[in-house]
């Protein structure tokens, strides 16, 4: 006899039902009377997906199609259209919290109704190098400020002049702003022999040759119109342009080509660390060698106030002679005296630090946790809880003890000690990048040559 809790609105086509209150925006699928969670369900043909939360827009990208296995809660930024349809056969899970403070809730937005993260229960696949598997993907959330800052990591505040934070900008305004940080000219006059290498979450990567020098380069092409968070493109340009280190991928130049951002960078033909992990097994000397190079890159970035926020095997690239470099700066953040901590939900679920998942203020120490997870990945062949859904893994990382190696007894004492220092739940007790460089485990790190055999084995299997 009581009135129904939900108002039902049925569309003629497609056959799925949309549930919303009379006052809710049409994109909402389910609204409760007190805390109307907003659903945007995306289905697509592509197997690449990413999720981006924004605090200034009512749209939410919250689910995966069950038919495409994913490594993480991610959605490709190259898909221009989104569907509001929902597959009635795909099981879903909601990550909800009963904690007293909304800041500790993974799914709570500071300026919007409560959100629920849902995903398929299919297990993600290990190898990211085969066509049937997905490329590196991440979960992002806008910064803790109620207003969105277009240039959130630019080390030079003057670069954001002309665009006010929090305001929506048109496509042409965004292009004009981007034009201030890129090189002038048309790279198509300088480059030739384009060959597609692969696709990432933000664009397509090609191999090309410079006409004048004959140097082979990598060119990342990103369509501005297909980016869910266009401001993240500035990270790709500004961070790689302003911060140079021997263990960081070097950017040569960047251009605006019609509606695309082209980033020309050094070509690393040794593949990614994910390729190595997926096809071979690494010994402790090789693991220590990778850790040493990554820690040197992190020491440099952290000294400049840069948090990478997406350390994982996909972000580590190799040269043919075994040198190791850090890449993928799309999700990095700048900390300073004015903003000493961050609080955004950013990263890839299986590598996320507990404080990131809990939405507690954090700093560069989140990169150390992710490095520890990457070490487990190198030893075990995959990160902890990888057979579980991303949300379940995030809940275990947030609430449980630090993950351990599957075969603890096979790891050396120095390796276990290294992991214990990196995977402390308390970020205040967690070792810094500088402190980890003094760990005995890194003494056994070898020259780049010790990585070459792994690269050759991977290339033989291609």
TrEMBL record:
GO MF: ATP binding; metal ion binding; protein serine/threonine kinase activity
Annotated region (Disordered), positions in chain: 1-168
UniProt KW Nucleotide-binding keyword: yes
Cofactor requirement: Mg(2+)
Top-rank taxon, per record: Eukaryota
Transmembrane segments: none
Positions that bind ATP: 220
Gene3D superfamilies per the UniProt record, alphabetical: Phosphorylase Kinase, domain 1 (3.30.200.20), Transferase(Phosphotransferase) domain 1 (1.10.510.10)
Enzyme superclass (EC): transferase
All copies of domain Protein kinase, residue ranges: 191-442
Keywords: ATP-binding, Kinase, Magnesium, Metal-binding, Nucleotide-binding, Transferase
Comp. bias intervals (Polar residues): 10-33, 41-140
EC number: 2.7.11.1
Annotated signal peptide: none
PANTHER family: NON-SPECIFIC SERINE_THREONINE PROTEIN KINASE (PTHR45832:SF3), SERINE/THREONINE-PROTEIN KINASE SAMKA-RELATED-RELATED (PTHR45832)
Name under which the protein is recorded: non-specific serine/threonine protein kinase
Originating organism: Callorhinchus milii (Ghost shark)
Source organism phylogeny: Eukaryota, Metazoa, Chordata, Craniata, Vertebrata
């Amino acid at each position: 006899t009581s009135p129904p809790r939900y108002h039902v609105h049925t569309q003629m086509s497609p056959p799925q039902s949309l549930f919303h209150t009379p006052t809710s925006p049409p994109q909402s699928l389910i609204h409760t009377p007190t805390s109307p969670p907003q659903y945007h369900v995306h289905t697509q043909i592509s197997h690449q997906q990413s999720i981006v939360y924004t605090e200034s827009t009512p749209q939410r990208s919250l689910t995966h199609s069950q038919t495409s296995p994913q490594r993480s809660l991610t959605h490709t930024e190259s898909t221009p259209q989104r569907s509001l349809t929902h597959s009635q056969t795909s099981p879903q899970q909601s990550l909800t919290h009963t904690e007293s403070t909304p800041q500790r809730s993974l799914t709570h937005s500071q300026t919007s109704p409560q959100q629920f993260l849902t995903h398929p229960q299919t297990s993600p696949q290990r190898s990211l190098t085969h066509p049937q598997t997905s490329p590196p993907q991440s979960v992002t959330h806008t910064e803790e400020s109620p207003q969105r800052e277009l240039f959130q990591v630019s080390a030079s505040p003057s670069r954001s002049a002309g665009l006010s934070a929090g305001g929506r900008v048109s496509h042409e305004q965004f292009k004009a702003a981007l034009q201030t940080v890129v090189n002038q000219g048309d790279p198509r006059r300088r480059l030739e022999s384009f060959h597609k290498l692969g696709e990432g979450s933000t664009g397509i990567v090609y191999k090309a040759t410079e006409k004048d020098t004959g140097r082979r380069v990598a060119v990342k092409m990103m369509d501005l119109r297909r980016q869910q968070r266009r401001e993240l493109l500035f990270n790709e340009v500004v961070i790689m342009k302003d911060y140079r280190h021997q263990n960081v991928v070097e950017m040569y130049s960047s251009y605006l080509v019609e509606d695309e951002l082209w980033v020309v960078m050094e070509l690393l033909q040794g593949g990614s660390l994910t390729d190595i992990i997926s096809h071979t097994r690494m010994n402790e000397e090789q693991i220590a060698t990778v850790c040493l190079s990554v820690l040197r890159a992190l020491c440099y970035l952290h000294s400049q106030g840069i948090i990478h926020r997406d350390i994982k095997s996909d972000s580590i690239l190799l040269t043919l002679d075994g040198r190791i470099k850090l890449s993928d700066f799309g999700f990095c953040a700048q900390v300073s005296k004015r903003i000493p901590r961050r609080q955004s939900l950013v990263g890839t679920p299986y590598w996320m630090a507990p404080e990131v998942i809990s939405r507690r203020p954090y700093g560069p120490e989140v990169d150390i946790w992710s490095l520890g997870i990457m070490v487990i990945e190198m030893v075990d062949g995959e990160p902890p809880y990888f057979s579980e859904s991303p949300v379940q893994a995030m809940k275990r990382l947030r609430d449980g003890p630090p993950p351990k190696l599957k075969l603890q007894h096979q790891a050396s004492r120095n390796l276990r000690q290294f992991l214990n220092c990196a995977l402390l739940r308390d970020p205040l007790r967690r070792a810094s990048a500088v402190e980890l460089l003094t760990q005995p485990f890194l003494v056994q790190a070898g020259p780049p040559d010790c990585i070459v055999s792994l690269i050759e084995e991977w290339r033989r299997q291609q």
